[in-house]
Amino acid sequence: MQINALLKRLVHLLIVILLPVIAAGTLSVAGPVAAQVTPTELEWLTVDIWPDFDRPEVLVLLTGSLPSAVTPPVEIVIPLPDGATVNAVARIDDTDSMLADLDPQIGTEFVAFSLPNRRFRVEYYAPYEAEGLDRSFTFDWLAPELNVRDLSLAVQQPALATDMETDPPAEAVTQGNDQLDYHNLPDTEVPAGEPYVVDVAYTMSEERLTISTVENMPAEAETASTDIGESAGLDLDWPVVLGIVGGLLILLALAWQLFWDRLAGSGSPPRKPRPARGQPQRRPAPRSSEGKARFCHNCGERAQPDDRFCRECGTQLKA
To answer: Is the domain defined by 41-235 classed in CATH 3.40.50.80?
Structure first.
């Protein structure tokens, strides 16, 4: 009986402590689904274009941020050009870490994903036109329902390109830490539904990719190729984990209590040790005049009419 009472208290304590944790974990899973909206504006969008970097294609890196007035999670839809191949879709947390734990929906003209943070990164490869050593391509941004307050674009000139031209023209050409030239176009606002088009043309001195000639890969490239993949499995939703663990503990405690209840109901109660030889035993008290009283034949304790075992020593009573 004492064991059962202790188990019941333990189950009650577990429920009181863990139910709030389980509820928090459930809300953390169900909340984003109910609260998701589609934003109509990006605070800023940075476009980095690297042609002939690690593939004979154009690598485009889009990094964007939501306005401060927008509360995540939100549903983001990013346009894609014809023939694009998505390389990565990631969120950027408050520590500037890129985490590829999203579940994007990739179509032929767009990539959509639920964003729990304010910033994101989308990377894709797009084909270019090649005629001998001449290369040309067009970057085209057209988001029907997404206004971009501030769009900045830079084109990395391949290491073995002899010249590069952009239309609109670059307002500045700067050299990065990787010793490569970057053609920076003027920052601009791109209203929703209006296209933003940049034409790029250059000539290669030979058929070699930039990555094979650069001794130190740029920090952005390292982030895109390594950090996203390495961090994908390390971002745990701890409220959900604690909720699952708490639920398992409650089930375990309930199962343990049920086991002891069945054990107590099916078996005989524990027998108390009989008095040692030489010790006086209690003698049965005389029956009442009605003759209905029952007593244990072992220790003399009075029994109730429905008792099967002695309440004092545990001996099975005689009929």
So the answer is: no
